Amino acid sequence: MKKDTDHIHAVPKESPPGPLPVLLRQVKDDSLATIMGHLENLFGSCDDLFFDLSSRAVSNSEQNLYFESMREVRLRKNGVTSGFKRLFESGFNQLANNTTRIPNPQVAKIQHNTLSLVQNDALEQDVAISSMANKARTNCQESLYHLNARLDFLSPSITVTKQNNPMDPQQICNYFAEACNILDINIKARIILFKQFDRLIVNKLAIIYSAANNTLIEAGVLPQVQFRGKTNPSPSAPQTENNSLRSAGQMQQAIEMEFAELSVLLANIRQQSPENLAGLAPNYTQYSANPGPALAGHELLQLLSSIQQNSTPSFDEELQLGNSLRQIISSLLSNHGKEPERALNQPEDDTINLVAMFFDFVLDDKNLPVPVQALISRLQIPVLRIALKDKTFFSNSSHPARTLINTIAEASIGWDDTTQPQKDHLYALITKITQDINEQYIDSNVTFTLKLDELHEFIMQTKHKSNLIEKRTGQAAEGQAKTKLAKTAAQNTMYAKLEAVSLPETISQFLTEHWLNLLLMTHLKHGEDSPEWVDATQLIDDLAWASQQHKDPKSQARYTKIKPNLLSRIATGMNQIANSPEAANSVITQIDKDLDLLQTNGDNAVLFRPLSVEQAKELGHTPGGGSKSWKNMTGVERQQARYKQLTYDYIRKVEQLPLHTWVSYTNPSSGETIRCKLASKIESSDTYIFVNRYGFKALERSRKDFACDMQANRVTVLDSGQLFDRAMGSILGRLNKTIKPQAAH
C-alpha cells in the first residue's frame, strides 16, 4: 500500500473562476473533448494490457500485482478522468484570470524535499513525465509556438509561457500524473500507465494543437505567425554547411556596438579606483596618460606593419602570448632613446585596449583548445591594424576578420589533447592561414576574405565525410542497443522461467542454447509485445511442463494432446536458427525420445538437474551476485550509490542537453580529457552516443551515468557560439558594471 504522502488530491480547492472569453472557452472545450475520447481508449487499452501481463506473469506476486492494478484502474478510472478534466479546466481559468494555483502542501513537500530524500519511485515517475513532455515539445515545436502566440494575444494582461499554458505538454502530463495519484498501484504499473498515456494521447498532441490553431485562425487571431524556433544567426555567419558546427541552442545574436559607445564605457573605466580597475579590467593600460608627446595614428600603423611583417612566432612561443599586444605597444612607445615614453591619442588608446581585451578573452576561453587559442592570437596585430583604420569594425558583424575568427573557433571546437598538431590537417591549415595573413595583409580586407573562403572549402569537404561517418556511427550504435536490449530480454525471460525448475539435461541444454537464440531473433524482428514473442516464451513453459512425469489421467491426456503441436513448434523454430536441417532434426529427435522415455519409464530414466552455474551466467545471472548492503559496501561503492541517489537535477540537465552539443569529458580512470559531440540519444537503451570531430564514436554513456559524470564535474558543456561576439559580450558586461554605481548617485 502507498504511504499517506502518496495520497494527493487531484483537484485543487480554489475560488470560483470568472467566465472564460468565448474563443478561449471554445479552444478548451474542443481540445478537452478530444483528450477525453483518447482517455477512454487509454483505460480500455490498459485493462487489456494488465490482463495480458498477468496471464504471462512468471510468479504469483507479479500476477497479483497486475490483477490488482487492473482492478484499481477499473474502479477509479472515472475519478482519474474527472480529476484530469477539472485540472485542465482549472488551467484555463487561471490563465484567463491571471492567477496561479497553489499546489497541495503534500505535493510541495515531495517536490521540494532535499535530493537525498527523493524516493526512487518519485524520481522514476518524474523522469517518465519529463521525458514525455520534452519529446512532445520537440515534435510539436512549431504548432506549439503558434498556439502560445495566439493564446498570448487573447490574454493581454499576462504573458503566456510554457509554465502557464494549460495546453503545454508538461502541463497536460502533470494534470494526468496528479489525477492518477488517487490510484493505489505499484510504480511498475504506474509507469506502464504513463507509457500508454504517452502512446495514445501525448503522441496526438500535434493534431490537437493544429485544431486549436485552426479555430483561432478562423476567428481572425493572428492568421499569420512567423515561427522563430531558433535564434537567427548573425550576418557574420555565412550560410554554408559550416553553420551546422554550432550546437542547438547556442546560436546568438551578433554583438554590434558603435565605437563611440565603447569609448564612453572606457572613459568610465579610467575614473575607477585602482582596486575596482583591477577587478573589472585587470590589464587595462592608459597609453594616453604617458608623459611624452602623442604618437600620430599613421605612425603607429607603420610601426605595427613593420612588426607584423617580421612576426613568425613558434608554437611554443604562442603559448606565452598573454599580454604580448600590450607589451608590443609599450615597447613601441618607449623605444625613443632618452625621450619620455610617447603617448597615444584617446581613440587609438581605446582601440588598443578593446582589441587587447578581446585577445585576453581568447587566451582565457576554456571552450577553445589551447593550441587554437595560440593560433588565433597570431592575428593580434592584423586585427589591431584593422580596428585602428576602421572604426566601424566593432559595429560590423559581417566583417571578414570577425567572421574568420568565429569560423576558426567553431571548426576547432572538437580539437582535443589527443590530436597531434603536426599531423592534423585542420591545425596545419589554420597555421598557414594565420601566417599568410601576417605576411600578406597590408590595407585591404581581401586577404581575410580569401583565407575565409579557403577555410570554408576545407570545412565543407571534411564535414561531408564526418557527417556520413557520424550517421553510420549512430546507426551502428542503434543496432547494438537493440541487440543488447533483445539479448537482455531473452536472458531475463529464460532465467525467470527456469530458475526454480529442474529439467532433463537435454531439454535444459536445448532451451539455454538453441531456444535462447530464437528468443533473441524474435525480439529483434517482432518486439516484446508481438504474438511471436508470446508464443516463443510460452513454449518454454509448455516444454518444461511436458518434461515432468504425469501420472494422473487428465495430465496424461493433455500431454498426449499437446506433444505433437509442441514438437511442431520446436521444429518451426529450429528451422529458423539451425545451421542445417540435419542439426535441427537431431535436436528434435532427441527431445522426442527423452519425453517418451520420461513418460514411459519415470523420473529415474532421465537425468534431471536445475540450471548450472555456467547456464545461469550465460543468462546474465551470477549466483550470489545480488546488491550489497550498505554495511558491506566499500567506500567507493557507497560514493557511487550516493551519486545515483543525488543525480535528480543532473538527470534533468542531461535530458535537456540538445543534440550536437560539444562537451569536454574527463575519463575518471585514465584522467584523459577528450572533446566530443552528442550525436544521438538511443531511447531503447537510454544511452547517449558521443562522436569526435571525424564522426567516430568517442564515448558511450547511459543517461544516469552521464548525469553522475556531470555531477562529479567530469563533464563541461562547451559553448560553440561565435567567439568574437561571446568575447565582446563578456567585455561589455564588465564595462557596464562601471556605469551602475555612477548611475546610483
Describe the structure.
With 745 residues, the protein is mainly alpha-helical. The protein folds into 4 domains: 215 residues; 203 residues, no CATH class; 142 residues, no CATH class; 85 residues, SH3 type barrels (Roll), CATH 2.30.30. Helices cover 61% and strands 5% of the residues. The chain has 29 helices and 9 strands. A 5-stranded antiparallel beta sheet has the order 8-7-6-5-9. A two-stranded parallel ribbon has the order 1-2. The protein has a two-stranded antiparallel ribbon with strand order 3-4. α4 runs parallel beside α7. The longest helix is centred in the middle third of the chain and has 53 residues. It starts with 21 loop residues before the first helix and ends with a helix.
The helicity comes to: 55-70%
Distance separating the two termini: 64 Å
Which spans of ≥5 residues are poorly predicted at pLDDT below 50?
1-15, 102-118, 229-253, 314-322, 740-745
The largest beta-sheet arranges its strands as 8-7-6-5-9
Radius of gyration: 34 Å
Large-scale geometry = elongated
Q: Work out the number of β strands.
A: 9
- Class per helix and strand makeup: mainly alpha
* Fraction of residues in β-strands: under 5%
- The number of helical segments is 29
Average pLDDT, all residues: 80
What's the domain count?
Answer: 4
Major sheet: 5 strands, antiparallel
